[in-house]
Amino acid sequence: MSRYWIVVADASNARVLAREKKFSALQEVETLTHPESRLHRRDLASDRPGRLDESYSATSSEAEEPTDPKVREAQVFAREVAHVLERGRTGHRYEELILVAEPKFLGLLRKALDDETRERVAHEVTKNVTREPLEAITRTVDALL
């Protein structure tokens, strides 16, 4: 079991890293990608919404604006990352979580985590370092501990 799992993520990439002790080397556990999050909105939206007959009265839930396709894809990916973290927790693979993510994605990820996994979050950093080398990520994480 690792002491820490560090998740470095944005809406289309996530790296799960492990650390045995406070300042030990980071080890890559898993890399996740979600290429749909990189698509343009026009490529994600299937069609414009249909028109309603004027005599049709929609309930409040039916009249809500559809979720932005980019946000919807980020939510899908956040749930996928959260599932990996839940499996790691239930498999006793880590004790504490450190989340380092782009601000909007961090909010989505936070919402996607189940309560027990959320309780394991020791630190959060609103910073996008997904494309940074491992040394830069290590410096970001070391500053927290």
Please, could you describe this protein's structure?
The protein is of the alpha/beta class. It has a single domain (2-39, 66-142), classed as 2-Layer Sandwich (Nucleotidyltransferase, domain 5). Helices cover 34% and strands 25% of the residues. It has a 5-stranded mixed β-sheet with strand order 3-2-1-4-5. Strand 1 and strand 2 (13-19) form a beta hairpin. The longest helix is centred in the middle third of the chain and has 22 residues, at 69-90. It is globular.
Question: What is this structure, in a nutshell?
Answer:
This is Protein required for attachment to host cells. This protein is of the alpha/beta class.
Write the layout of secondary structure elements.
Elements: E1 2-9, E2 13-19, E3 27-33, H1 41-44, H2 69-90, E4 94-101, H3 103-112, H4 115-118, E5 121-126, H5 134-142
Parallel strand pairs: 1-4, 4-5
Antiparallel strand pairs: 1-2, 2-3
Protein name: Protein required for attachment to host cells
InterPro entries: Host_attachment_protein
Organism: Alkalispirillum mobile
Query: How far from one another are the termini?
Result: 19 Å
Mean pLDDT: 85
Give a quick account of the main beta sheet: strands, pairing sense, barrel closure.
5 strands, mixed
The CATH topology is Nucleotidyltransferase, domain 5
Give helix and strand order, one letter per element, not per position. EEEHHEHHEH
Helix percent reads: 25-40%
Shape: globular
The total beta strand count reads 5
**CATH level-two architecture:** 2-Layer Sandwich
Organism: Alkalispirillum mobile
Region (Disordered): 34-71
InterPro entries: Host_attachment_protein
Biased composition (Basic and acidic residues): 34-54
